[in-house]
Amino acid sequence: MITAEMVRGLREKTGAGMMECKKALSESNGDLEKAVEILRQKGLATAQKKAARTASQGMIGSYIHMDKIGVLVEVNCETDFVARTDEFRELAKDLAMHVAAANPAYLSPEDVPSDIVEKEKEIYRAQIEGKKPENVVDRIVQGKLEKFYEENCLLNQIFVKDPEGKKKIKDLITEKVAKVGENIIVRRFTRYQLGESAK
After folding, report:
1. Is 57 helix (H, G, I), strand (E, B) or coil?
2. At CA 55, angle to CA 88 and CA 170, rounded to 5?
3. CATH number, domain at 21?
């Protein structure tokens, strides 16, 4: 039996619509965690469908931390209407705060120059060669490279405000796409720290 209380709880947890929550709870036989997973998968599917759509509206989010760190981040969506919503503005602010705290060097793994990727691979290979069987070296190197992306690429970083320490920035954006119904793209960001030398 799916109760209104269960639907409300799922809605508060995910931000999904009432009908979607009810369907997900029915599909999961009232299992809240399973229902959350179903909604996340649907959100991901929706986000992938919307990813091809042009996002040329949006805003520049900003954040200044104790007059020592300043961040600007350009976040784009499809319409001015969505750009003016509290949901979208909160996302831009959260992203700017995250950049201030986590100091990513790149936006995504695709933005990391190939010479840096090759250099990282060389270092990882040198660390494990001769210590592990050759057939697992490539897998270990790939795993270490994923960790490098998680530490240095904004979209792959764990969102600093996630209480569970699991949600990546790209997951946060996917959730917002599912909520607002439009494609959302982080176009670029810049971070200044008082006293640091120009790159």
Report:
1. strand
2. 60
3. 1.10.8.10
